[in-house]
Amino acid sequence: MVKLNDNRVLITGASAGIGAACARAFAEQGAKLLLIARRGDRLRELSDQLTRDHKTECLCVEFDLRQHLSIPSMLEQVPDEWRAIDVLVNNAGLARGVAKLHEGDLDDWDEMIDVNVKALLAVSRTVIPWMLKRQAGHVINIGSIAGHEAYPGGNVYCATKFAVRALSRGMKMDLTGTPIRVTSIDPGLVETEFSKVRFKGDTERAKLPYKGIIPLTGEDIAEAVVWSAMRPAHVNITEMVIFPTAQSSSTLVHREEKA
Ligand SMILES: NC(=O)c1ccc[n+]([C@@H]2O[C@H](COP(=O)([O-])OP(=O)(O)OC[C@H]3O[C@@H](n4cnc5c(N)ncnc54)[C@H](OP(=O)(O)O)[C@@H]3O)[C@@H](O)[C@H]2O)c1
Asked: Do the Cβ atoms of 93 and 116 come closer than 8 Å?
């Protein structure tokens, strides 16, 4: 088993949901955290809590990952010791709307493609060479069941997650012959702020995907992320699809009606 204490872990989208849960789970293992998101206040709150509870060393970077052309320079500006990234969790991402493709909003499409694909590429393009220099590292991409099967209204979000899946496979192939590991963790329904973001703050509508089921939590996914990172160095968990028990595909979900 690989021990993570004093490992440096970079997590994008650490201000909420799966990313914040990953930060807590890695902190419990003694890792040092480089946390990136737009909501710096949330990052600092999390960092304070982790420093208090686990003495975690955190570096918070408030940054809009849509500025993907500025990602290399943003990362080059972190203090030298933070270039020794042992685990990169490419987690930041979002869905916007469920409009049919022919009725879709071009700005929504741009946002999803910028964050889910271009930012993941730019962060990976910067950090993987650092890993190669040290001959150590693990890239963990948060994909989705939406990267395995499209669903009605999922069009562009699904396309971005199909892209993430292709990129995870491509990264693994391009890193063959190096010690760098690549993992894709692909969840089904996880109750986070995801749905609230998708439905642009409509909290009632945001509850519907989780109605009548016990959804996954950010912690369920974080546990799989940390478990993958802790496998022995010769073991590469390549892809993990995680559903709530009530879900079997993007569209097949058993919901219990409450009396
Ligand atoms: N929830 C699900 O059912 C589910 C299922 C499968 C896969 N996923 C994937 O899991 C990942 C995490 O989602 P989540 O469920 O944890 O959603 P969430 O609670 O909404 O968290 C999303 C995170 O991404 C960050 N982010 C979004 N846009 C950003 C930007 N422009 N710049 C920097 N950071 C940005 C957010 O930070 P700020 O807003 O502070 O910037 C936030 O920390 C995503 O890639 C998502 O596609 C989620």
From this structure: yes
CB-CB contact of 41 with 16 (8 Å)? no
What pLDDT score does 23 carry?
Answer: 98
- What is the number of other CB atoms lying within 10 angstroms of the CB of residue 111? 17
Q: Whose CA is nearest to atom 46 of ligand 1?
A: 93
Series of mean pLDDT values for 10-residue runs along the chain (259 residues)? 95 98 98 98 98 98 98 97 98 98 98 98 98 98 98 98 98 98 98 98 96 98 98 98 98 88
From the candidates 82, 109, 157, 162, which is the catalytic residue?
A: 157
Cα(138)–Cα(241) distance, integer angstroms = 18
Residue spans of the domains in the chain: they are 8-242
Atom number, ligand 1, closest to the C-alpha of residue 18: 16
Question: Looking at domain 8-242, what is its CATH homologous superfamily?
Answer: NAD(P)-binding Rossmann-like Domain (3.40.50.720)
Q: Is 210 a catalytic residue?
A: no
Give the distance (Å) from ligand 1 centre to CA of residue 259.
33
Ligand 1 midpoint to CA 98 (Å): 17
What's the pLDDT at 46? 98
